[in-house]
Amino acid sequence: MKPDLFEAPDYYNLDDLLTDEHKLVRDAARQWVKREVSPIIEEYAQKAEFPEQIIKGLAEIGAFGPYIPVEYGGAGLDQISYGLIMQEIERGDSGVRSTASVQSSLVMYPIYAYGSDQQRQKYLPKLATGQYMGCFGLTEPDFGSNPGGMVTNFKDQGDHYLLNGAKLWISNSPFADIAVVWAKNEEGRIHGLIVERGMEGFSTPETHNKWSLRASATGELIFDNVKIPKENLLPGKTGLGAPLGCLDSARYGIAWGAIGAAMDCYDTALRYAKERVQFGKPIAGFQLQQKKLAEMITEITKAQLLAFRLGQLKNEGKASTAQISMAKRNNVDMAIRIAREARQILGGMGITGEYSIMRHMMNLESVITYEGTHDIHLLITGADITGLSAFK
Ligand code: TGC
Ligand code: FAD
Questions:
Q1: C-alpha 61 to ligand 1 mean position (Å)
Q2: Which atom of ligand 1 is least distant from the CA of 248?
Q3: Where are the alpha helices (DSSP H) in the chain?
Q4: 3 pLDDT band (50/70/90 cuts)?
Q5: Which of 80, 106, 153, 242 would be 136's cystine partner, CB 3.0–4.6 Å?
Q6: All domains in the chain, ordered by first residue
């Protein structure tokens, strides 16, 4: 793979809106990605393996629980810093960002927001340092876009719960130490449970043959009469709104992360177009290539402004689910389109692992599907603006 020469586009001087802390956090993540992710990621994606050696570094740049308070081991940063960290990590690879998103927003967040103080003390500091890795089990084989239909269930056995069922497409599952699992009780009410590796009847087989997110480990969660101690039930919130609340946080991070993937594709394509000579001049001088590049930087700039404003709303506690949904949908769609166009600018070289573009493009096929598909997010906006739900 080529050396990482990335230079971040900032066409509308967004840096002027960032605080010194934002820039410090962002630049530390950027340097870390250049040093630790870029040199190895192509090899790990090719061999379909998660590079476990980067876990410690992810923790050190604050990628595990950026906005979780310091008293629980988090970095205590604001939402814009969280977004910037996700942007920089996904600039390296969406699969690495997935690991950080899941750990922060889908494992640490529910334990912080819905957990008992004992659960917070027990798990959060270890999750923040990467000593424990976590995963989030919502999707099932027959319930993806419609998680409310889930059949995974638990029964009260007096001194413990008995958990049965299966979850599919779970990021981090093959190596996770704990899983935050959503299951129905005997009354059909959804609760969150913390399941620990080693509990009898709990297994996490890996899902192979992915053409996307190859440097991220994905797997199943199988529960065959797993005895769950009662203190592992998250007491703070029940119902489908509990897992959906976690998705708000993760989707927000993805809205920023996708910008990182798009910036990398644009930067690579711009550099290549200025260097590659055909018909006696750099291809960047041809009008059709300039149109592609001009549209790319325009769309990146619009996505940056959307994410920044959403970050302000998040900081004020005012960002709605529908606003977050729109940013996730728009920014991932923007990134995947840019990846496809950028790939073409590189001609044949664009399909090789010498450059990051094809890997980003393939990764983004997962990102546009998980955390709610593109179409589900259109329907969330549709329901919000019409007051009529297409799901009912
Ligand atoms: P609906 O009737 O709309 O809502 C059910 C209840 O939940 C409440 N609610 C929320 N509460 C808190 N936060 C939110 N964001 C909420 N959204 C909804 C709602 O008020 C209601 O409460 P109540 O008291 O009235 O019961 O539910 P629905 O069944 O119609 O479904 C809505 C739909 C389709 C939008 C939703 O289920 C959905 O978003 N589906 C997509 C599924 C999804 O995104 N799955 C993601 C799995 S995790 C993942 O992909 C991780 S990948 C991570 C990585 O690797 O980076
Ligand atoms: P389906 O729900 O079967 O949808 C198939 C198609 O039908 C889609 O195009 C969808 O948009 C469309 N569709 C569905 N309903 C409607 C409707 N009402 N109107 C119009 N169109 C509709 N889940 C987790 O819980 N934890 C994880 O860590 C996790 N990680 C993942 C990692 C990867 C790599 C992938 C690919 C997925 C992951 N997921 C995870 C699951 C992901 O959230 C689901 O794949 C996603 O929600 C879609 O569900 P599905 O794949 O079952 O598709």
A1: 30
A2: 15
A3: 20-32, 38-46, 55-60, 79-92, 94-101, 109-114, 117-129, 241-275, 287-315, 321-345, 357-367, 374-386
A4: confident
A5: 106
A6: 14-128 (1.10.540.10), 134-232 (2.40.110.10), 241-386 (1.20.140.10)
